[in-house]
Amino acid sequence: MGAHLARRYLGDAEAEPDPLTMPTFPAQLGLPGRAPRAMVASAEQLAQGRVPLEQRDFCAHHLLRLLRCHRDAFPLPWHCQPLRHAWDTCQHHDYVMRMKEFERERRLLQRQKRLRQRQAATTE
Question: Span 99-105, mean pLDDT?
């Protein structure tokens, strides 16, 4: 955690993607047939379920079920353990997917920089 900041400020900043911006390369580049991620729960369902804005991600449908279970089985929260496990697993897979996407973007930026340098060397 924070390694991207060290590489960005101490290393080569132009070959390091900004984690707060969207990817600059098309999603299909190098991965033909890649399916785009889609939200399972709608915005209306999330609003009705009173899911906080910071938790409205690709795992929000698991969180909706977990919150409903907590409400229905109030004094006994351990009844919702399988739903909690499903939500935690989804959160972990989402984190891994975002890290893979960041690494893909970083490698594509490095490749783009190498190609530019090679092209500049051949034109001189």
Answer: 87
